[in-house]
Amino acid sequence: MENNFYTIFKRIIRECNYDNTYKMAWAKALVEISLEIEEDKYLVDIDLKTIAQKYIKYYWNQTIYFDLIQGSNLLKTPVILQKVKQLIEEYYKYIGNRKPVRFERIEYFIKENLQDEYKKCIEDIAKTLKADVSWRFTFIDGKNHEEIYKYSKEENKITIDIKNLIILKENSEDLFDLINYRWGLILETFNSSPRINRKVKIIDEQEVKRNSLSKFRKYLDEENPNKKCFICDKSIEEKEISIDHVIPWSYLYSDDLWNLVYVHKSCNSSKSNVIPTKNDIDKLKVRNENLLRKLQDNNIKGKEVDELRLAIEKDYVNKFWIGCKS
Asked: Does residue 41 lie within any of the structural domains?
């Protein structure tokens, strides 16, 4: 027979409302903390600031790579996400570029170089958790379930039975899968971005992997043998060549021939994740038609060519561009 605590914990995850993703982040934080704590005490106190630090990591990674909307009110960003975005901007300002990096890789850098900003972010998130999340998480079936954990609105901590933490620890893999799945379902109601569940799941992996794009050069060379930059239209020296996603990778989370072009490295880095203009989209559509014609004339076949043909037939460029803008 399944433990009552575990049953209710899973029900909270499955039946939470879709206003925002706060409860999913809270559930994930508790499971992660269960893997870190080694306590002999019967009851374990968990400070809200400890949970707040987990929130920073989760929302940092989902935002800096994919900029996912985390709440149903599109005119008002959830407070916690606002605070994390502010911290990301402070980080960008400090390092002087907008290259996305996982929070785990630069956590100590931020603690050392953006100490005040990081501390304030933790404090602000903890206040929001105290006001909006900590007591709401255990509320289900019209009542508060103290068997999950005990919490007083006057305190800045929750108190959880060590036996319950052990249950979370022993079932952590299944719970992470369930939380990520539910988090993805919630995000699908706010975001038009494709591959939402893959994006949520990838954040739990050690690294957000970007595949090498060199395999696409043999196709791009057919249409652009002189290596002219898609952005500035000037010739590119070999050492300055970069392959760019016209519609940002952070939106598609995919490498597709129909969306890849030659650019200068400098043009690519300055562009960052900017949404392309209508002129860029029209230019890409013409390029794709020219590219397909060149490939067909030279009897070049393969998966990438088939996908390019399908993209033109289904007008992927325009459809994904509209989705990206929305």
From this structure: yes
Which two tokens mark 190?
A: 């706010």
Instruction: Give me the number of domains the chain comprises.
Output: 2
Cβ-Cβ contacts under 8 Å for 192 (sequence gap 6 or more): 323, 324, 326
The set of residues, in sequence order, having a beta carbon less than 8 Å from that of 158 and lying 6+ positions away, is 45, 46, 48, 134, 149, 150, 151
The torsion angles phi and psi of 83, rounded to 5 degrees, stand at -65, -40
For the stretch 23-63, pLDDT in tens is: 999 999 999 999 988 777 789 999 999 999 999 999 999 99
Instruction: Tell me, yes or no, whether 209 lies in a domain.
Output: no
Domain boundary among 151, 174, 202: 202
Cβ-based neighbours of 220, under 8 Å, separated by 6 or more: 243, 257, 260, 261, 262, 291
Residue 226 lies in a domain: yes
Identify whether 207 is part of a domain: no
Domain end (from 202, 233, 260) = 202
| Mean pLDDT, the chain, whole residue set | 91
Burial class (CB in 10 A: 0-12, 13-18, 19+), 56: buried
> One-letter amino acid identity for 222?
E
For residue 208, CA distances in Å to 60, 87, 199, 220, 305 come to 13, 20, 9, 25, 27
Assigned token pair, 12: 């909270």
Of 134, 137, 166, 147, the closest CA to residue 52 belongs to 134
Tell me the whole-structure pTM to 2 decimals: 0.74
What residue numbers bound the domain in which 142 lies? Answer: 4-202
* pLDDT per position as a tens digit, 222-271: 999 999 999 999 999 999 999 999 998 888 888 999 999 999 988 887 66
Reduced to 3 states (helix: H, G, I; strand: E, B; else coil), residue 171 is coil
Strands (E), the chain: 43-47, 139-140, 143-144, 157-161, 241-245, 260-264
- Angle between helix 48-66 and helix 79-95 axes, rounded to 10 deg: 70
